[in-house]
Design a protein that fits this description.
Blueprint: H1 9-24, H2 28-38, H3 40-64, E1 70-84, E2 87-96, E3 99-106, E4 118-123, E5 130-135
Antiparallel strand pairs: 1-2, 1-4, 2-3, 4-5
């Protein structure tokens, strides 16, 4: 904490994300009221958005820890209609080795992958699932 118990930007962001998780899960007064007035469709959409944020944070942590990535070629992409902080959530169809796989990813609006481009993916050591790790460096 800072002077006069002021919270850092990181602490405020973590607190806001926890509040969003609670509301999306219907916990607490605000969560129950949101679900009652906005409906379960809205809260389901909010749960997907917070899951995307957590996934992006998880990937950043794995990359910082040195988990290896592998290249994949973008075969197609589809917009999910969700944006978080103006960054779109998309479904990428990727050529990974001899197989085509589809993964949902939150991508930077400044670095949206295009069909034919190389991206980096990694395998989550905990779940074994495939995670989007960003655009591959251009040669």
């Amino acid at each position: 904490m800072g002077l006069f118990n002021r919270k850092s930007s990181q602490e405020r962001q973590e607190e806001a994300l926890q509040m969003a998780d609670d509301i999306a899960a219907g916990r607490g007064f605000m969560g129950k009221m949101t679900k009652a007035f906005m409906g379960s469709e809205f809260t389901a959409s909010m749960q997907q958005a917070t899951a995307s944020i957590h996934r992006a944070d998880h990937v950043a942590g794995l990359r910082a820890a040195g988990v290896p990535t592998q290249p994949a070629t973008v075969l197609g992409m589809q917009d999910t209609g969700q944006t978080i902080n103006d960054n779109p959530s998309i479904v990428l169809t990727l050529q990974l080795g001899a197989q085509a796989v589809a993964i949902q990813a939150l991508v930077s609006r400044l670095e949206i992958p295009r069909v034919g481009e190389q991206v980096l993916v990694m395998t989550d050591p905990q779940s074994g699932g495939l995670l989007y790790a960003g655009l591959a460096p251009r040669a």
